[in-house]
């Protein structure tokens, strides 16, 4: 702080950063008010910029909320698009399979076996009878009075399982039952045999050998040293002295065909099906029906309705008008063009209709989904269940992407936009060496380019975003596409809400850039205003000091004049 004073006055002109007080011997002017008014006039430009930044931040938050809600809609739609991972989907619920079990008499079918179906497995029914479970071979040694005392046996034993790799275990006279168990277990990953000790009574312990895998017999040999007989694992003839559980394979029938495997998990009997056997139930038939996982599809459909209704509530909240007829204070995106576009796009997509090959017209109403008075969606669960169980192929057509082709050699690899043409004949040329050389539609070869065995739609054409794979010979292939409601809406919303490349992301990025620039400008104005405050304060301090000096001189002259009198 700078202080200007005179010897005849105790008051001072203070030149702080925010105030300047005139002394009683100076001008008597309130310099602080003058300075503050001048500085605030300059700061008002920064205030206007800061107000715009705050408004932009509110818009960014609202856009990000809208983006999250639209992405939630797309997440719910993803599995309903009838696309594979290679064509852009995370899953295809129409290809997911589940197994329905029935029968078993008094024993629940699920206690006898379970069946897991891979995606795309053929639907159908099977009759299963579990005759026998696969078991792990178990043999026991003779009991001993102690598990830690020396057994007095010596020699080398070789053990393993049928078809596996045998290992050699050296046994010395000082080894106890525990020592032998530990030596066997140190090699169990190689031998396929695990050892354990069972306390039979307070004075009896027994070594147990168990095959790690079912259906494989334990093999034993001691090269004639007698250590196996001494331990009580084999008898005098070399056979198992105490076989606790015999090794056996699993046996079950599929539609009357006998299947035998070494494991209770069988994945190679029927393509796409894995059977896990839990209990033998000879003479009882278990019915297995492999079908589309309708529960997952229903869950995705109801999840979509919930996600759409959440977005609809958001849109309504930003269209609210207050009692004065103006936008509500919470309606940050009131009259926003993008929000209007998205709302209309979603509404139009949900009201679209799809025509099947049979000429039937499908819509959301076919699934029991209709609009309520506030344009939210509501589900008639009974109608939805009937649609799913009655004609799942119609549901697939209504919601997902489907391609038909007159050649099995033509496969869809990618389809990431809405095509301008959905039915066309593709004329394909293959060179003599088997390489794909060209593809055209109606004689126009500029619509596609080829790369390896891929046929790629060129940008700017009706086929942009389409990639096909062809492995056949020269010829013409008729191709047709049907883009259902879920796939069409997903594709549209992805262009709007995609995290890095969608319309919302671009708008938010621009607003962030604008805010960064405006923040710099505002900070610059504030810095210059404070510099101005400092200069102005010093200027007025100098004026006050001069006024005080003049006032002091005046007083001195008056005093001298009175003294002269």
UniProtKB/TrEMBL annotation:
Residues 27-137 form the Flagellar hook-associated protein 2 N-terminal domain. Its main location: secreted. It comes from the Bacteria. It is found in: Secreted; Bacterial flagellum. GO terms for biological process: bacterial-type flagellum-dependent cell motility; cell adhesion. Residues 247-546 form the Flagellar hook-associated protein 2 C-terminal domain. Signal peptide: none annotated. Keywords: Bacterial flagellum, Cell projection, Cilium, Coiled coil, Flagellum, Plasmid, Secreted. GO terms for cellular component: bacterial-type flagellum filament cap; bacterial-type flagellum hook; extracellular region. InterPro entries: Flagellin_hook_IN_motif (IPR010810), FliD (IPR040026), FliD_C (IPR010809), FliD_N (IPR003481). The keyword Cell membrane does not apply. Required for morphogenesis and for the elongation of the flagellar filament by facilitating polymerization of the flagellin monomers at the tip of growing filament. Forms a capping structure, which prevents flagellin subunits (transported through the central channel of the flagellum) from leaking out without polymerization at the distal end. Homopentamer. Belongs to the FliD family. This is Flagellar hook-associated protein 2. The lineage of its organism: Bacteria, Pseudomonadati, Pseudomonadota, Alphaproteobacteria, Rhodospirillales.
């Amino acid at each position: 702080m700078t202080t200007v004073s005179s010897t005849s006055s105790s008051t001072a002109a203070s030149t702080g950063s925010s105030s300047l007080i005139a002394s009683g011997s100076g001008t008597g002017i309130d310099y602080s008010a003058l300075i503050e008014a001048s500085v605030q006039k300059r700061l008002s430009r920064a205030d206007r910029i800061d107000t715009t930044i705050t408004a932009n931040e509110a818009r960014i938050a609202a856009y990000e909320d809208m983006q999250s809600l639209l992405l939630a809609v797309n997440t719910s739609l993803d599995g309903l698009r009838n696309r594979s991972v290679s064509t852009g989907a995370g899953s295809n619920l129409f290809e997911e399979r589940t197994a329905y079990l029935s029968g078993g008499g008094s024993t629940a079918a699920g206690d006898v076996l379970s069946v897991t179906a891979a995606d795309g497995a053929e639907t159908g029914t099977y009759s299963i009878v579990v005759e026998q479970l696969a078991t792990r071979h178990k043999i026991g040694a003779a009991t001993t009075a102690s598990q830690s005392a020396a057994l007095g046996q010596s020699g080398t034993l070789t053990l393993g399982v049928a078809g596996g790799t045998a290992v050699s275990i050296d046994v010395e006279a000082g080894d106890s039952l525990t020592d032998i168990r530990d030596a066997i277990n140190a090699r169990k990953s190689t031998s396929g045999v695990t050892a354990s000790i069972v306390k039979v009574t307070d004075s009896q312990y027994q070594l147990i050998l168990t095959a790690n895998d079912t259906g494989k017999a334990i093999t034993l040999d001691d090269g004639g040293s007698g250590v196996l007989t001494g331990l009580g694992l084999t008898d005098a003839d070399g056979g198992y002295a105490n076989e606790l559980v015999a090794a056996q394979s699993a046996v079950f029938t599929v539609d009357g065909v006998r299947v035998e495997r070494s494991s209770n998990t069988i994945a190679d009997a029927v393509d796409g099906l894995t059977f896990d056997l839990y209990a033998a139930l000879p003479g009882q038939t278990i019915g297995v029906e492999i079908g589309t996982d309708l529960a997952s599809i229903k869950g995705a459909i109801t999840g979509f309705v919930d996600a759409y209704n959440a977005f609809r509530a958001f849109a309504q909240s930003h269209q609210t008008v207050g009692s004065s007829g103006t936008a509500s204070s919470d309606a940050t995106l009131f009259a926003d063009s993008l929000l209007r576009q998205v709302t209309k796009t979603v509404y139009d997509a949900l009201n679209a209709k799809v025509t099947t090959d049979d000429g039937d017209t499908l819509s959301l109403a076919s699934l029991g989904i209709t609009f309520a008075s506030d344009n939210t969606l509501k589900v008639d669960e009974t109608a939805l269940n009937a649609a799913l169980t009655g004609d799942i192929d119609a549901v697939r057509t209504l919601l997902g992407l489907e391609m038909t082709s007159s050649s099995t050699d033509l496969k869809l690899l990618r389809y990431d936009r809405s095509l301008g043409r959905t039915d066309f004949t593709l004329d394909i040329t293959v060179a003599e060496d088997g390489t794909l050389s060209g593809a055209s539609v109606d004689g126009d070869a500029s619509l596609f380019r080829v790369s390896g065995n891929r046929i790629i739609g060129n940008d700017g054409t009706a086929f942009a975003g389409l990639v096909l794979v062809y492995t056949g010979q020269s010829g013409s292939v008729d191709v047709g596409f049907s883009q259902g409601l879920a796939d069409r809406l997903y594709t549209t919303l992805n262009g709007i809400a995609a995290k890095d490349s969608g319309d919302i992301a671009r708008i938010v990025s621009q607003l962030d850039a604008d805010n960064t620039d405006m923040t710099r400008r505002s900070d610059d104005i504030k810095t210059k205003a404070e510099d101005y405050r400092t200069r102005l304060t010093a200027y007025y301090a100098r004026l006050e000091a001069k006024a005080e000096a003049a006032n002091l001189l005046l007083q001195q002259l008056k005093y001298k004049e009175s003294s002269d009198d």
